[in-house]
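Exercise 7. Given the encoded structure of a 224-residue chain, write a plausible sequence.
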């Protein structure tokens, strides 16, 4: 797809990766609606980059997610692309996971993004794209990350089915299987201390890879 002048919804735009992605996409278009848990943070991002609109969106609230997507579609006159850059983590042995933490992991990492995309699809132009940041943890679960990995794997599996269903509309479904990066995500975990992790990959490289993934409609975005 051509990103120049594209109408894009970015969910989770106020995080480290979300902001960098918006900066990169903003080089091609200002027809972008951004969302974040904090309305003030989303509005500051909108104003800094000169984007179309900003809204508060908590993925745990599916009704709010659907309402925000519909409003964004009206503001942009539809979507050419939808990018979901949200995510939360939690760590600890599977046998000791707290039920409330597990529920929030699945809400933010899987169920909420699914609700956003379901609401967006009727407004998404044929030949467009959707992209979700899942992470390599979706396919390489390690000890101490059972529910976190499972929530990401659920999202990745759903995207695989969605890709098949959207073939006739020529809508690319991009699964960004990004590695660990120093975005502060692990330091904001819902529970538990993070395990020892390798040095984080370069964020700019990840952002450039997602941009190319959207442009070329690749199935998966990976970093070597």
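Solution.
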């Amino acid at each position: 797809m051509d990103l120049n002048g594209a109408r894009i919804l970015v969910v989770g735009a106020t995080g480290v990766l979300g902001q960098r992605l918006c900066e990169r996409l903003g080089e091609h278009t200002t027809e972008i609606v951004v969302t974040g848990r904090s309305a003030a943070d989303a509005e500051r991002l909108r104003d800094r980059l000169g984007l179309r609109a900003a809204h508060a969106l908590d993925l745990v609230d599916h009704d709010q997610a659907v309402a925000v997507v519909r409003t964004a579609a009206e503001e942009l006159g539809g979507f050419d692309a939808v990018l979901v850059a949200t995510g939360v983590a939690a760590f600890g042995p599977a046998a000791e996971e707290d039920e409330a933490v597990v529920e929030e992991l699945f809400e933010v990492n899987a169920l909420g993004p699914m609700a956003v995309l379901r609401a967006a699809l009727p407004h998404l132009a044929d030949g467009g794209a959707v992209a979700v940041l899942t992470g390599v943890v979706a396919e390489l679960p390690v000890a101490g990350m059972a529910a976190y990995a499972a929530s990401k794997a659920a999202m990745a599996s759903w995207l695989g089915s969605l890709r098949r269903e959207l073939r006739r509309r020529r809508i690319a479904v991009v699964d960004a299987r990004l590695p660990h990066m120093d975005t502060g995500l692990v330091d904001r975990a819902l529970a538990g201390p993070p395990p020892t992790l390798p040095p984080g990959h370069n964020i700019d490289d990840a952002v450039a890879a997602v941009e190319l993934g959207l442009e070329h409609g690749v199935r998966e975005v990976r970093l070597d």
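Remark. The two ends are 24 Å apart (CA to CA). Students should compare their own answers with the one above.
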